[in-house]
Amino acid sequence: MKPAKDNCNVAIVGAGPAGIACGYALAKAGVDAVVFERGKYPGAKNMFGGIFFSNAMNRILPNFYDEAPIERFVAKRRYSMLVDNSEIAFGFEPEEFKKLPHNNSFIVKRSLFDKWFATKAEEQGAVVINNITIKDFLWDGDKVIGVISGPGSENTFLADVVVCAEGANSILSQKSGLRDKLGPTKRSIAVKEVIKLPRSVIEDRFGLSEKQGAAYEYFGSSVQGLLGNGFIYTNMDSLSVGIGFSLSDFMEKKGRESPNDILEDFKNHPSVEPLIKGGSTIEYMAHMIPSDSFSYLPNMYRDGLLLVGDAAGLLNTSFFHEGVNLAMASGLYAAETIIEARSKRDFTSKTLYQYQEKLNNSFVMQDLKNCKNFLSFLRSHKNLINGYPRLFNEILVDYFSVSEKSKREIKRGIFNKVRKNVKLTRMVTDMWGAWRSLI
């Protein structure tokens, strides 16, 4: 399928959350927007953990959750540090999150949600074209004036502005000259299975009712000490179970196993296996995740072109794991900028720079800036995810062991163990540094 004409006001490459949010806002404002998607349908090739933070979505469609294909809302969160076959966990289940709008935290399947969201954009007048791969930009000197899907004029589409929402592994963003060549230090890899289980079993195991959902995050041994984590999110009648870790960290691991081997190891952990026991895998997927961090983000605009979402590296790489929310927000800011540019009939950087300004003044860049040192700090302080948790686990075992030793003797033994294994000043410094890298 091709549009009725070979040009449009705005060409959007990619029908993920950023691209569709942009297309929706533009079409609603009467702007001719065409979204090109290389998958069979929006969401067909998209993968993420499962948690959707929805405050940007609320700007687009208030009360969207009344009709969107939501699996559950996040009522319960749990953070675990796996140490070999042991687990140290912290969980919370605030009553406030069980009331609308549920802390803007929902569990969704992208294959369903993205398709639904795309239909909403089409209802506004956006055109979504599936099964088409944009291979390059069309240039007029240094200005992008369209996109190319293949040889011949019939595969050339003109546009006043192109929005690149191509995703994490964006070759077009490199061709644009806005970002350097992608490397392993700027990307993470995630693998995930969807494991089918009866709804009643899920709700019994995770202590849930009705549309309540649980989000469990696992660190440390969940990814064999790599810089990353494992997760379990509860769908209505299945579990999203996966892992994600730094690609560079993985490549440096000697005698490394495959990502699938690491996932199987996580699934077989004594704290994880009982939660997924008896389930059958119905989906398996892998995906590249941006981990540019604030300090290494690409330029976001040039004449005739804007980068949004994962293509722009907009993902919070701390334990918040916000991606879809930032992507949608960037799509909205791109649309606002384009609408302003149309009023001036100026699609050069002189006007499009306002997109960068909008991002800078929003929670998107402010949150990324606050956490900009998180990954680099962890890379240089691996004790925080390996050494300290192992020591803390030993301390807990010693302290709560029932024996004929007096509590005084146990405390003395713990103190000697800590003094032998770590320098207290170093530990305090590391903990303080970790806290500062998050806020």
Can you characterise this structure?
The protein is of the alpha/beta class and 439 residues long. The protein has 3 domains: 7-69 and 109-179 and 298-372, FAD/NAD(P)-binding domain; 185-290, D-Amino Acid Oxidase, Chain A, domain 2; 381-438, no CATH class. It is 36% helix and 26% strand. It is built from 15 helices and 17 strands. The chain has helices at 17-28, 55-60, 110-124, 171-175, 199-206, 247-252, 259-267, 273-276, 324-344, 349-360, 363-370, 374-380, 387-400, 407-421, 424-438; strands at residues 7-13, 33-36, 51-53, 70-83, 86-92, 105-108, 127-129, 136-140, 143-148, 156-164, 187-196, 212-220, 228-234, 238-246, 280-290, 301-302, 305-307. Strands 3, 4, 5, 6, 11, 12, 13, 14 and 15 form a 9-stranded mixed beta sheet that branches. A hairpin with a 2-residue loop joins strand 8 (136-140) and strand 9 (143-148). It is globular. It starts with 6 loop residues before the first strand and ends with a helix. The model is unreliable at 1-5 (pLDDT under 50).
